[in-house]
Specification:
- By secondary structure, this protein is of the alpha+beta class.
- It contains 10 helices and 20 strands.
- It has a 7-stranded mixed beta sheet with strand order 1-6-8-9-3-16-7. The protein has a 6-stranded mixed beta sheet with strand order 11-20-17-15-12-13.
- A hairpin with a 5-residue loop joins strand 4 (64-67) and strand 5.
- It starts with a strand and ends in an 8-residue tail after the last helix.
- The model has no long low-confidence stretch (mean pLDDT 95).
Length: 455
Amino acid sequence: MTSSILIFPSTPTGNHRRIELAGFDLWKSARIDNVFVYPSEIRIDQFNQALSRTLSLWPLIAGHIHIDDTERYFIEMSDDNGILVTLVKNNELKKWPLDSKVVVELMENPLLPFIDGVQAEKLFDKTQNEPFVRIKLTHLVQSDEWILGVSWPHVLGDAAAFLHFLNTISCFYQQNKSLEPLPPVFERRLWQKDEADESFLAFMKQQRDAKPTEETMKTFLADQLTYDPINLHFSGEQLAKLQTLAGGNHLTIQDALTAYLISTLNRFCYSNNDQRRIMRTNTTVNYRGVSDTIAPKGQVSNALVMMLSDDFDDPYSLSNIATTIRRSINKSREPKFLETWIATADGIMRRNMKNDKLVDLGLFSNEVVVNSNLRYDWANLVDLGFTDRCRFYTAWSGALYLRTFRLNPILDNGQWLPRDRDGAEVTFRIEKDLKEIFLDAWKRDVNENFENVKK
């Protein structure tokens, strides 16, 4: 049984204000679909009230895209548009069918029945009436579990902005005054052509080498078929050990984890392959808070750079790889460098939008992409009060595209195990003939407590 309801802002605040989008917000077809699983009832009226309060604080979500005659892009806020919440009662499934692994495979995506996907490209067509966000609640009647599926287009903002929105709903749902959400900031800096520097194009191959949509999708599907997924779990204790081996507290846990994965791939999979040996990273970096004149904390946008590291002096050394990665990330947060990078990328993204091209997220020789959510505890920040009993899921793994998330809580024979809040899950795809070689090396390192990893 399915029913739907439109939820409007509790208090009108949009007043048809317009927010002009920067170039790096112009992701025409990309979207993020996430699913959360709860062990018992989500109170529908309470959820809808929380969403209504959130929309008053976030009038951007109930808006629509406006394109003027000079091809400037805006989001016009609205108090008249609602967000559709779909409620499904499922009597067939005995219980939630997945384990606690965060990332599922896109080609056979088991999350699809629990998501109403936003048709992101329709947002740019004024003849369509596509909402920015779609929400679906599914009640598994036999187990009394509830599933929240939310679809969010990248034009609204990146994963951090998406999580900010969902956390606001969670805070309001719990009706706990101590849980005060961070106010959103919609205004953003608009970048000028004279702030760009063409020499920076060497740092941004993904944007510079954008391809037509059809070609990008063809490469995307080919990678899904020719590379196999790897999904690894690390305990908090193991990650602390890797951080110590890599050089200590001046490096982050993610620096050490990335360095370990690269050194292992190079030692056991690519040691005799000059074309595939990993010599550098391209890391997605959130720059909110570096400077309020660039992007303050709480900004709802795509506040990201994709930072290319220098080549590793020693591509087998844990400490050298980690230190090189950290040096590149620190550089990306220098305000002057950051301003020039963003302004240059802004121009490229506007050109790609005009030419109907997509950023190339395929493989580049001797590189891995790192896109970490380790700083974002999705299962905790969107738990609706079900502390350490909410599980979070998302889809897609890419060829040598490292995605990192916090570990989900684990339900074992009806009992919730103590959650390892410092652990991590990492997923990527690798050549089919190298998968077992890599996994054997990783298992051996785990059994040896990483003592034989080259520092």
